Amino acid sequence: MAITINPISPVAISVFGIDIRWYAIAYVVAFITCFWIFGRLTHRADATITLDKKQNDDFMTAIILGVVIGGRLGYVLFYNLAFFIAHPLEIFAVWHGGMSFHGGLIGLVVANFLFARRARVNGWKLLDLASVVTPLGLFFGRIANFINIEVMGRTSDVPWAVVFNGVSTTPRHPSPLYEAFGEGIVLFITMMILYNKTKLKNHPGALTGIMGMLYAVIRIVCEIFRAPDAQIGFLTSWGLTMGQLLSVVLFTAGAIIFAHAIKKPR
């Protein structure tokens, strides 16, 4: 017996004719929450890196731009290039949804090292801290996916399968909630424990590598329950998805970064 849910309007509120969408609110809450925790970590006695208020604000601006631009371009290039070639103005319509984590991650890394070079701080230490708080941002993003009825799961007869009233009669895995729990809550708690209870933060790049590997594993597992993107489908006859392929690349990169970080002197 599936769970029937009445769809939530993607528009949270309208102010003077301007629609403010849950998707945008999720991103705003994610950035505010992540940077609040990030600021707390940089001001602790055991902090591996410190930023003054101006630097913290500049870093936040750089990361927001990197994530949004990278996430959108990643979706365009990895998931729906033919459509956006035919409709180039849609690239800028981010309120319609369509963001790639892997693209956003690339944008975050680029913005991180550009800022680190300008501020003359250790880029890997900075990226390690960003890696600790990033999963919390993913949590809010996946909740927004669920509200927008995006990236839903494959058909299923499990008791917690969901049907959105008036949208479809087919029960599906609530895969955005799986990802919110795995990529968000579980990964955030794990990264905080590793940061606070181990000495990995003394090896610049180690936490970054671990976060990449753990996210990749969680994403690959969650993709088993998530329906492939309609415009792409499965990449192989045995069911490989684009998300899984990109995650394999991410896992490999994370493993290389981690191995190099551990070998370097503290």
3D structure, described in words:
With 266 residues, the protein is mainly alpha-helical. It has one domain. Helix content is 60%, strand content 6%. Strands 1-4 form a two-stranded parallel sheet. The longest helix is centred in the first third of the chain and has 27 residues. The model has no long low-confidence stretch (mean pLDDT 90).
Shape call:
globular
Strand order of the largest sheet: 1-4
Q: What is the strand content?
A: 5-15%
SSE run:
EEEHHHHHEHHH
Quaternary state reads: single chain
**Overall tally of structural domains:** 1
Tally of DSSP β-strands:
4
Please outline the helices and strands.
Elements lengths: L2 E3 L5 E5 L2 E4 H21 L10 H27 L1 H6 L14 H19 L3 H25 L14 E3 L10 H23 L8 H17 L19 H22 L3
Parallel strand pairs: 1-4
Antiparallel strand pairs: 2-3
Helix pairs in contact: 1-5, 2-4, 4-5, 5-6, 5-7, 6-7, 7-8
Give a short summary of the structure.
The protein has helices at residues 22-42, 53-79, 81-86, 101-119, 123-147, 175-197, 206-222, 242-263, and strands at 3-5, 11-15, 18-21, 162-164. It has 266 residues and is mainly alpha-helical. The strands form two sheets. Strands 1-4 form a two-stranded parallel sheet. Strands 2-3 form a two-stranded antiparallel ribbon.
Give the tags:
single chain, 266 residues, mainly alpha, two-stranded parallel sheet, two-stranded antiparallel ribbon, 6% strand, globular
